[in-house]
């Protein structure tokens, strides 16, 4: 694996050397001047050589995108590499490995003689950080977050303040000691340093905690704290920067600082919420342009971040607020494919960002000018640890008086141990002005040391510690419909009891918010029928869909798919011998290939295939061919069905069903089978299919076959009573299959099961 | 009217509310007094007992889908009046579970706010006919109340069937109390079914 890194780094260097000398990563200072020869092509330098240059080398004009792409490629290949080595990724967290790679790459660049690039603050804050935060905010589990918001705020605000002052103050005391030669460092600088180093970093926390799968409560506490302390950090940073420049501080300034904090935090949230509502409102009208739906989500969120940064409000909180506010409404409006796209893109960007951040941290360590001062650094590390532990213990003592479910000592230990520092601290330190802060290099060295310590030591040991202490792990199972129903039931019950007691508690306000949401907000922001859909029904739909997807994915195995072993209505697949299975697959594959050819020509602007592009002649020919095939198949095994001619082309049906959740509507059905019937009538299709009616005919809908092709169904033309019943059930199964799409998306996580507003 | 009742409440409080711990007695006294004043303000007839109409006068309860059932839970079998003692007894189910109570072994009388008793209270709200089973119809009724009028019966029926299938382990097409407990084992009932100020 390391050899791969080396070859890649070597390649990268080879290409870099002719280009620039001493280039910074684009986005910080301007790219340096390019010295060096440019190979064969002389731009009009040799007037005597009249031969037309067949091959020329002009690196200059693609340099910046090229370098960026190379870095991203390096990061992605690193990620690939780590996961190919199973043992490594289970012992060492990814962040550590990436920093090591960064160190190596930086070292390589140094050895070659170039100046390695440093993680520029502008690049970091504007490009690398937002995707990670948006990913976190969009998929934030709202229910545990709101249930623990008091605790989280206490840790974020009071905890960070405590850390900053404790570390800053004690460091100042240390600096004043005689033997340390640090007398130049004044109080303001120390406090500023303390505020930079005290904030728990969301990137590092995410990177480490994601791998250890602790229970939801602890995860949301530490993670929520790391997100919300951004406001505190921003305010403290600017405050102390101002004070250090101005020289003195008065009571008025302190008061203004507090006001500033409120403005920054609430302003950030407000900005985020506004953009979130805008995004939700926009998504209401996107039913005709499904392709750009994900773009709105990303753009509005990024704009929220940037707008907050314009006013020096907390960009992170704006981003979180935007994601959390827009999510329930946007998800009700957009198509399933867009949802998958958003999920994939967010995960992809955040993953790449994270990787890049850690690699750059490693490179910057090699690149930066360091000023190592033993006392300062060691004291910083120790003080950070001590401050964290004291802060957590003290705060928990106070918080437990107000919590129903108390935090145990084990919990406190994990919270304290999970306070990792990361790249935000580094970037903030890098932003410091060298003029006002001559000891900036020393600060940076100390910051990097603390980061390394927390990421390496704490990051690597937290997993065995979690196992050792037997901390409760995350429960992997999905929410069942029972839990959903009973939880809602209990919500109503508790609201009622609170009303009887006259106590305006948690449930009371939640209930009021839900009512307000249902009455006014949902009507504005959700298009069409979905706005009236109760939460329970939406949850049930989602669950059914998921199960259908699972059924399709389990494919044709001779064993029946064992999703719900107790379910009496589910029918086991017929046992097929291997050879017959092969024949079936071959026959259907030839059919399927035709379908794919037809898909080629749909245009970019809509996902619905043009109904007239198929050509009616083709369809008649296909029908005839299919019927011949059908006769052949029915000879093989009378359990197989005739691939019935589709009344409309599979592409259209699939596109129509898949792209538009608004095409669903509930149709009452007078049958005892517990399913939801889907009315497929849609204005686009000249001949809409009513799948329910098809049960009366022995022929079966072929959508599902086209989809996966290999789910065989029982009925034959001779409608046996038992087979008829199975017929209906499979038809229902096929319906469900037809509704689901070939791409299951990223692995289903608990966040998908979150109801709109818990 | 007021004071003797409060004092008698305080005297037997140790039986129902398990408030034998000394430092907490002040808190308990405060809560009981508060609840008593609430009881008193609900009791428009001034006869020391609440009737169903008194409860129905609470506006938020009228829009609560489970309002009627909750009210019924306060009244013991066949009676139409609930006194302060009964009022407190029902509310005692919603006290948060203390850590030291959790670790207590099984003594003769499990406190009213134990997890089991909380779940039993909720179960009884489903199971109106007291046959210790939640049948499909009872489940349908609850679903209908929670979901509103827009959803068709068939769809609700399918949800109910699915729910029962998930929970049912002994195949009797209804949910017994033990199945109910099992289904909710992942839900943090101690937190969900507790009201903070009754601490």
TrEMBL record, chain A:
Main location (coarse class): membrane
Catalytic activity line of the entry: Na(+)(in) + H(+)(out) = Na(+)(out) + H(+)(in); Li(+)(out) + H(+)(in) = Li(+)(in) + H(+)(out); Li(+)(in) + Na(+)(out) = Li(+)(out) + Na(+)(in)
GO biological process, any: sodium ion import across plasma membrane
Transmembrane feature ranges: 68-85, 97-113, 119-140, 152-174, 186-208, 220-240, 255-281, 311-330, 351-368, 374-400, 412-431, 443-466
GO cellular component, one term: basolateral plasma membrane
Comp. bias intervals (Acidic residues): 748-758
Coiled coil: none
Listed Basic and acidic residues bias regions: 694-703, 720-733
Cellular compartment(s): Basolateral cell membrane
UniProt cross-references to InterPro entries, sorted A to Z: Cation/H_exchanger_CPA1, Cation/H_exchanger_TM, NaH_exchanger, NHE-1-like, NHE_CaM-bd
UniProt KW Transmembrane helix keyword: yes
A GO molecular-function annotation: sodium:proton antiporter activity
Signal peptide: 1-22
Every Cation/H+ exchanger transmembrane domain range: 73-466
Annotated protein name in UniProt: Sodium/hydrogen exchanger
Organism per entry: Denticeps clupeoides
From TrEMBL, chain B:
Keywords: Calcium, Cell membrane, Cytoplasm, Lipoprotein, Membrane, Metal-binding, Myristate, Nucleus, Phosphoprotein, Protein transport, Repeat, Transport
Entry's localization field: Cell membrane; Cytoplasm; Nucleus
Residues annotated as domain EF-hand: 114-149, 155-190
Similarity-based family: Belongs to the calcineurin regulatory subunit family. CHP subfamily.
GTP-binding as UniProt keyword: no
A GO BP annotation: protein transport
Molecular function (Gene Ontology), one example: calcium ion binding
Keyword Transferase: no
PANTHER family: EG:114D9.1 PROTEIN-RELATED
Coiled coil: none
GO cellular component labels: cytoplasm; nucleus; plasma membrane
Protein name, per record: EF-hand domain-containing protein
Gene3D superfamilies: EF-hand
